[in-house]
Design goal:
By secondary structure, the chain is of the alpha+beta class. The chain has helices at 8-20, 31-46, 81-101, and strands spanning 22-25, 51-52, 71-74, 107-115, 121-124, 134-141, 154-158, 161-165, 172-176, 182-184, 191-199. It binds 2-oxoglutaric acid and fe (ii) ion (FE2). Residues 124, 126, 182 line the site of fe (ii) ion.
Length: 205
C-alpha cells in the first residue's frame, strides 16, 4: 500500500489539471467512505437539516428554483467521522495541488447536495462575480449503481465539446473553477454528492 504522500491518484488529478484543466477519476473514494457519507447525507435529509441551495453570494444571494433544485448542508470539521475522513483526503489533495501546480490553495469549503428526481442545476461557472477566491472545484458522487438512462450526468462544456460524467458512487471530478462551464442534468432518481471548492486568499468584496 502507498503511503499517503505517494498516493498516485492525487498525482493523476494534478497532471490532468495541469494539462487540460479537469479530471475525472472513478472509484477514487473507498467504498466504506462513500457508504458512510451517503448514509450521513440521507440522515440529514430525513432530519430536515438540508436547506434549498441559493445562487450567488452576499447581497446578490438568491434562491432560484429555475436555476438549481438541490438542497444542501455545509460540512463542518468534527460533525462526523465520515465527513472528517473526506475533509482529510481533500486536505491531502489541496497540499498536493499546491506542491505540484503552485496553486496557493488555502482552504476548502464543501457541502452535501441532494437533487430530488427531476432537479437540475443550469449551466454555470463556479467562481462568483464578486468573489474570485474559488480556484478549484471538486465533486464527489455517492450513488450506488447509477445507470446512464437515469440521467443526472454532470455535463462539462469543454472547448472541444460536451463531456458527460455519470454520478457513480466513488467518482471524483476536479476542475478549475473559473474556466469550465458545467451543468447537472435532471435524473429519474435521487442524486447525492459532495460539492466543494479549494479557495485562494483573495479580496472578496
Ligand atoms: O453535482 C455535480 O455534478 C455538480 C454540482 C455543481 O456544479 C455545483 O454545485 O456547483
Ligand atoms: Fe458547479
Amino acid at each position: 500500500m502507498n503511503a499517503p504522500s505517494e498516493r498516485p491518484l492525487l498525482s493523476l488529478i494534478a497532471d490532468d489539471l495541469a494539462v487540460r484543466g479537469w479530471s475525472h477519476q472513478s472509484l477514487a473514494l473507498p467504498p466504506g467512505l462513500v457508504a458512510g457519507l451517503a448514509e450521513e447525507c440521507r440522515a440529514r435529509a430525513a432530519a430536515g437539516s438540508l436547506a434549498p441551495a441559493a445562487v450567488g453570494r452576499g447581497e446578490t444571494v438568491q434562491l432560484r428554483e429555475g436555476v438549481r433544485g438541490d438542497s444542501i448542508h455545509w460540512l463542518e470539521p468534527g460533525q462526523s467521522s465520515a465527513s472528517d475522513a473526506y475533509l482529510a483526503l481533500m486536505d491531502e489533495l489541496r497540499q498536493r495541488l499546491n506542491r505540484e501546480l503552485y496553486l496557493g490553495l488555502e482552504d476548502f469549503e464543501c457541502h452535501f447536495a441532494l437533487y430530488p428526481p427531476g432537479a437540475f442545476y443550469r449551466k454555470h461557472v463556479d467562481r462568483f462575480r464578486d468573489d474570485d477566491r474559488r480556484a478549484v472545484s471538486v465533486v464527489a458522487y455517492l450513488n450506488d449503481d447509477w445507470r446512464e438512462e437515469q440521467g443526472g450526468a454532470l455535463r462539462l462544456h469543454l472547448a472541444e465539446g460536451e463531456h458527460d460524467v455519470q454520478p457513480e458512487g466513488g467518482g471524483l471530478v476536479v476542475f478549475l473553477s473559473a474556466d469550465l462551464p458545467h451543468e447537472v442534468l435532471p435524473a429519474s432518481r435521487e442524486r447525492l454528492s459532495l460539492a466543494g471548492w479549494f479557495r485562494r486568499r483573495g479580496a472578496a468584496y
